[in-house]
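STRUCTURE:
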């Protein structure tokens, strides 16, 4: 078998994940694979378990059973910092930004750079200049041209610009995977278009993206594959080329049986 014909190895893989909250079964033996260089959308109706799945992948929740692997190695994320150490960054719908702080401070929130020498090690002084330079470089690398002043307070930015700052922060520290939870929710058409462009740019830079979204047009615009979750299990993985949005919704709601479909790789 030639290298070109060799099967791809997933960056993140999960099998048989189970998670219960009392009598509520959030994950019922679900499987998951994310491959290099792709945008994988995760869709599902309310209660399908997609949020719990993402929390397991990002370290916010520990599964009760099942196995997760990153680059083929077993992992058990017990906190978000464990996932971050493995190169997995998540941008939640709430964004988790500090509105009163400027853009650079938000991008390095919790990971501030200190000045060299005794000023940093003893007096613990922050290197604001270095953080501003690196924040500006990251925004420019992602092609974010709508933010001109890096010292601007985040509370003065539009919704799309705030989302761009959060995505840029994730891209700056996520070495393997970026997870985006409803990134276009509550955004207008123009700002949603800017966020979708950011997603494509991340993929083009070699960072695979997991996109959780209820917006079918957005999913079909940027996703390479679509993971469909229903009643705590993965019921299908399709591609925009092989499945229509209406069929994807039908599988998601149970009106169409997706179990007979081959898993798109």
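SEQUENCE:
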């Amino acid at each position: 078998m030639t290298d070109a014909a060799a099967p791809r190895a997933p960056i993140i893989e999960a099998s048989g994940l189970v998670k219960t909250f009392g009598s509520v079964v959030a994950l019922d033996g679900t499987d998951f694979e994310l491959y290099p260089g792709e945008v994988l959308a995760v869709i599902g109706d309310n209660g399908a378990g997609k949020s719990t799945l993402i929390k397991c992948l990002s370290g916010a929740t520990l599964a009760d059973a099942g196995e997760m692997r990153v680059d083929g190695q077993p992992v058990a994320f017990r906190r978000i910092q464990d996932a971050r150490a493995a190169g997995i960054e998540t941008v939640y719908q709430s964004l988790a930004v500090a509105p009163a702080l400027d853009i650079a401070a938000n991008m390095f929130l919790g990971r501030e750079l200190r000045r060299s020498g005794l000023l940093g090690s003893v007096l613990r002084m922050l290197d604001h200049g270095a953080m501003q330079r690196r924040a500006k470089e990251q925004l420019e690398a992602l092609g974010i041209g709508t933010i001109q002043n890096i010292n601007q307070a985040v509370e003065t930015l539009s919704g799309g610009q705030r989302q761009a700052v959060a995505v840029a922060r994730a891209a700056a520290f996520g070495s393997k995977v970026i997870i985006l939870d409803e990134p276009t929710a509550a955004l207008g058409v123009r700002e949603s278009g800017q966020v979708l462009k950011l997603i494509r740019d991340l993929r083009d830079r070699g960072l695979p993206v997991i996109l959780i979204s209820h917006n079918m047009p957005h999913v079909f615009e940027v996703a390479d594959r679509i993971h469909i979750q229903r009643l705590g299990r993965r019921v299908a993985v399709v591609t925009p080329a092989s499945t229509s949005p209406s069929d994807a919704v039908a599988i998601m709601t149970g009106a169409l049986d997706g179990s007979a479909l081959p898993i798109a790789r």
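REMARK: The longest strand covers residues 24-34.
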